[in-house]
């Protein structure tokens, strides 16, 4: 199989998640992941800097999609409308694979302090990207922080409902994230 | 100097922050920190598992103070009143040393991806502790998540104003955190 065979990246992710599930995150090496995926170690390193980054891959793409969504919201739109546009945009990068792998990735993260740290940084990065994009639209800083945190919470809640939920529920990730964002908006009005 | 000399923990933190400032976080070893603080490496390891934990020390204590504050809020108090009590309680563990070291710790964190990850996990842990304590009071889950995130944002903002601010401003960390919490509450009512 050629080193640049299409799908190598996806096969690496599947192989890694299988191995993390079977033998734990700490015990799994890059060499084992590459072997299971049928590629060389060099191919692994062309796709990911290390095994930890493999599980949070896509953070930069997601930050960009969130920022773009906020930037392209209509000129008069408020902060929450812009955040809704961000979540719709970011949802486009999640497909059936992400949905199916989610429970096993969650299990792997729950067993590794190192992965929990990396995962926490991902949340913080997504919030920071949205805050920056909102401030650039003229949203006051505290409102921007707040709206961005609501966006991250809603996206996590939406993703959990989407990946844990019944596959017969025909709603997609964007709908479930916007539903969660609406719930948070309602909750934010009645805080006491 | 005895290995259990009082103040060893504090001296280790000061020595570490000095070394991180002078030569960077990555280049600094536990042995160097211990030597600068005038203690043995064993003493270092009695206080901290590694140099990374030294900079986020107190996370567990802070989680406990936040939870206790929420738990001990009056029976009829709403989520935000309980969060305010949490911030007041957590503020008690921050003294003049924390205030003075803050800019240099911030500088060290900004240069190290590893420290940023650990710092992000600390924020996530504080939010989780407050969410759990709020749910235990009967606050609905989405409201609890929201109020806890506002609490973390307010505490970070309050801490930044306190450590960056003019020392002639006589307000303490608790006051500045509650001020930020009020701003976030106002912002949350006008989200659109």
TrEMBL record, chains A, B:
<dbReference type="GO" id="GO:0003700">
    <property type="term" value="F:DNA-binding transcription factor activity"/>
</dbReference>
<comment type="subunit">
    <text>Homodimer.</text>
</comment>
<feature type="domain" description="HTH tetR-type">
    <location>
        <begin position="6"/>
        <end position="66"/>
    </location>
</feature>
<dbReference type="GO" id="GO:0045892">
    <property type="term" value="P:negative regulation of DNA-templated transcription"/>
</dbReference>
<feature type="DNA-binding region" description="H-T-H motif">
    <location>
        <begin position="29"/>
        <end position="48"/>
    </location>
</feature>
<keyword id="KW-0805">Transcription regulation</keyword>
<keyword id="KW-0804">Transcription</keyword>
<dbReference type="InterPro" id="IPR050109">
    <property type="entry name" value="HTH-type_TetR-like_transc_reg"/>
</dbReference>
<keyword id="KW-0238">DNA-binding</keyword>
<dbReference type="Pfam" id="PF00440">
    <property type="entry name" value="TetR_N"/>
</dbReference>
<dbReference type="GO" id="GO:0000976">
    <property type="term" value="F:transcription cis-regulatory region binding"/>
</dbReference>
<protein>
    <submittedName>
        <fullName>TetR/AcrR family transcriptional regulator</fullName>
    </submittedName>
</protein>
<dbReference type="InterPro" id="IPR009057">
    <property type="entry name" value="Homeodomain-like_sf"/>
</dbReference>
<dbReference type="InterPro" id="IPR001647">
    <property type="entry name" value="HTH_TetR"/>
</dbReference>
């Amino acid at each position: 199989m050629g080193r640049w065979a299409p799908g190598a990246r996806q096969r690496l992710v599947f192989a890694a998640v299988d191995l993390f599930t079977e033998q734990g995150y700490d015990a799994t090496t890059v060499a084992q992941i590459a072997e299971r995926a049928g590629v060389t170690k060099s191919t692994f390193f062309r796709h990911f800097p290390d095994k930890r980054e493999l599980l949070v891959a896509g953070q930069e793409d997601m930050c960009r999609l969130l920022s773009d969504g906020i930037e392209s919201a209509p000129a008069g739109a408020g902060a929450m409308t812009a955040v809704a546009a961000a979540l719709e945009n970011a949802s486009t990068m999640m497909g059936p694979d992400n949905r199916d792998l989610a429970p096993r990735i969650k299990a792997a993260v729950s067993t590794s302090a190192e992965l929990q740290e990396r995962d926490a940084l991902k949340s913080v990065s997504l919030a920071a990207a949205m805050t920056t994009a909102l401030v650039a639209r003229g949203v006051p800083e505290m409102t921007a922080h707040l709206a961005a945190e609501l966006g991250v919470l809603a996206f996590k809640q939406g993703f959990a409902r989407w990946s844990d939920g019944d596959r017969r529920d025909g709603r997609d990730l964007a709908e479930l994230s916007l539903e969660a964002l609406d719930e948070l908006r309602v909750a934010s009005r009645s805080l006491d």
